Give the backbone structure.
Amino acid sequence: MSEREQRIRIAVVDDHEMFRAGVIATLQPYFDVVGQAADVEGSVAMIAQTKPDVVLLDPPRKGVEQPVIDAVVSAMTTLGNSARGTHEGSLSASRMIYGTREKLATFFNCPRPDHVVFTANSTEALNMAICGLLDPGDHVIATDLEHNSVLRPLYRLEAERSVSLSFVPADRQGRIDYGDFERLIRPETRAIICTHASNLTGNVVDIGRVGAIARAHGLIFILDASQTAGVLPIDMEAQQIDLLCFTGHKSLMGPQGTGGLCIREGIALRPWKVGGTGVQTYNPAQPEQLPTRLEAGTLNGHGIAGLSAALDYIRTVGMETIREKEEALMCRFYEGVSVIPDVTVYGDFTAPRTAVVALNIRDYDSGEVSDALAQDYGIATRPGAHCAPRMHRALGTERQGAVRFSFGWFNTEHEIDTAIRAVKELAE
């Protein structure tokens, strides 16, 4: 037989034309690609006709819903740059982006869609809020639960603008005393900045209570909703939130590179960055109107299209349904690992929380445990310090770090049981 006759005959099945084309181009120098199809019906007919040796099937995608993928792919082939022209590509982008602002305003009960500002992530949103609000001499209250996305901008302003800082302490279970907020208020206090939930322990903060304290004392309440937007209800009006910072790629189920800042009416922020906006070209300063004032440069239209589809998916499934499943999976895992000898679990499991569990096995380095979980069991976890230095100090885990298991809508009970078994075996 010739070399050509000996080559393996392959068929490719995938619902995305661009992906199929890329796979075929890669395979053709080495294999005979005898057919392709985009759906089940077409693939059955194609396989019956071509009788390939191997069929490459589109694998199930974990952790993202197909409508989000489809929305991003469609946007990449159709959308132009919003507010940069009157052609259909630009107009379509503008309509889609404004529609997503409206969805987010409804989702968080933000009073105005034009007060929804798009960012690349919650870190950018928090920098916009913190650096755009605080002046020299201001005092800010935060908590030990905060992520470096809050801490580092505050520490920077402490050094550069003489902003003074106070932190509500956390105990060994990562809990806070709400009375500490009021005890820390000073005449020069400008704002309270608080995460909705610890990214390390999963402990949830009663933001309605914090918002009421801030409003009673005339303070601005900045909320970091990175860990909760999409899985816990957030209502800017009811919970008296002045500035809401969120990311799109976590519980909102959108693509990376998406996030935003929702701003209550009456709050003025200095632009964190300036530049092109597509409007008021001859104005030497950044336009005053929101959202343009805080959206310099080209927006991530493709990612925002994915975020829009994700919001539709959450609305269809129901946020409560998603939350209940995630909580059930988290509880199943906690009940399984908390009884294993030499396993330490962190956080308060008697109060509201998000679906994460942080633990350590004896004195094993958290990075080594995480590597073993990945290499031996195919389990993805986050080890180390989690960008939460004050929280680790409160828990006494500065040196060891912790291994964080995060549970989502797309996980299964079988996966949870596998993870429990893995922790048990590593602890033996």
User: Anything to note?
Assistant: DSSP finds 14 helices and 13 strands in the chain. The chain has three domains: 7-57, 68-317, 319-427.
